[in-house]
Amino acid sequence: MTQIYNKVALIGLGLIAGSMSLAMRRAGLAGEIVGHARSAETRATALEIGLCDSVFETAAAAVAGADLVVLCAPVGAMGDIAAEIAPYLEQGTTVSDVGSVKKAIIDAVLPHMPDHVHFIPAHPLAGTEHSGPRSGFAELFENRWCLFTPLPDTDPEKLENLTRFWTAMGANVEKMDAEHHDLVLAVTSHTPHLIAYTMVGVAEDLQRVTNKEVIDFSAAGFRDFTRIAASDPTMWRDVFLNNKQATLEILGRFTEELFDLQRAIRRGDGDHLFEHFTRTRAIRRGIIDAGQDTDAPNFGRAPKKDA
Ligand code: NAP
């Protein structure tokens, strides 16, 4: 048990804040955990399940006396929250966030930050399709990356403390430039989500395949698209509105590749398809070797008992 912060304020009390609270408590990282969420219902749930020791009706009240403030609300809400809390932040406080895009958050938050606080943007690459305070679990960050996009003049001691904090919650920390982060995430997360949203929409629109058939026979790949496409609509709307440039760039490349494969199918060019699928298989191997997914068949899912 190594306490790193006396008082941690979580602004936004959903999946990520809930998981952070459980991971912090498990490792004894915070003297006290306080929080704020928009609705009275979420605040009441957070108190009931022990996500926070105390909750506040405003973000401004929650940050008073905190030595770490983590913005865990949707990306589009970060700027307004930063403006609200700014006058109430203590001398030397570290302000961080968990938002899925970084450049737009820095642009929205940094102008509000007073000189006496340390703003260190961060993004844990961990999540599920569930949301809300009850969806958190302590193991969410284990062996997952947490990417920091520190500003050039970041205090090394504050950076070191935040690194120790995330490491103690199970994550591996890596630093990178905010624009590069947004490009990497456009490839690994944002565009794949858009493709899943598109494919699930297509299946719903198709008249010749019934909804029942889609649901019953979904195990052949479609099921995994539906899991991704069930992710929180607010979060993902904000991701695309705030990582426009990189997602459009990757989407452009994706469309070119798609046309290339479409042409190969039309021409019956089996060699081309085989070569492409061999290359992509190697990427899957690399992810497994890096410990970022299981090698077990069907993603390690237990077979259905009645199947
Ligand atoms: P979530 O489960 O939907 O929770 C969002 C929380 O933010 C809720 O408590 C909500 O309160 C609160 N909130 C919304 N608008 C607010 C506002 N204007 N002021 C204060 N609180 C507000 O979301 P999440 O999955 O934890 O995601 C939170 C952040 O983490 C997002 O920025 C997201 O990009 C990032 N992230 C998500 C994932 C993921 O896979 N889920 C992974 C990595 C990073 P109410 O319940 O009262 O509305």
List its traits.
alpha/beta; 2 domains; six-stranded parallel β-sheet; three-stranded mixed β-sheet; 12 helices; 49% helix
Strand and helix map with partners:
Layout: E1 5-11, H1 15-27, E2 30-36, H2 40-48, E3 54-55, H3 59-63, E4 68-71, H4 78-85, E5 94-97, H5 103-109, E6 118-120, E7 122-124, E8 145-148, H6 156-168, E9 172-175, H7 178-205, H8 211-216, H9 222-229, H10 233-242, H11 244-267, H12 270-289
Helix pairs in contact: 4-5, 7-9, 7-11
Question: What can you see in these coordinates?
Answer:
There is one protein chain. The chain folds into 2 domains: 5-176, Rossmann fold (3-Layer(aba) Sandwich), CATH 3.40.50; 180-293, 6-phosphogluconate dehydrogenase C-terminal fold (Orthogonal Bundle). The chain contains 12 helices and 9 strands. It has helices at residues 15-27, 40-48, 59-63, 78-85, 103-109, 156-168, 178-205, 211-216, 222-229, 233-242, 244-267, 270-289, and strands spanning 5-11, 30-36, 54-55, 68-71, 94-97, 118-120, 122-124, 145-148, 172-175. The protein has a 6-stranded parallel beta sheet with strand order 3-2-1-4-5-6, with helices on both faces. β5, α5 and β6 (118-120) form a beta-alpha-beta unit. α4 (78-85) packs parallel to α5, α7 crosses α9 (222-229) and α7 crosses α11 (244-267). The longest helix has 28 residues, at 178-205. NADP nicotinamide-adenine-dinucleotide phosphate is lined by residues 11-17, 37-39, 42, 72-75, 77, 81, 98-100, 123-124, 126-127, 131-132, 232, 235.
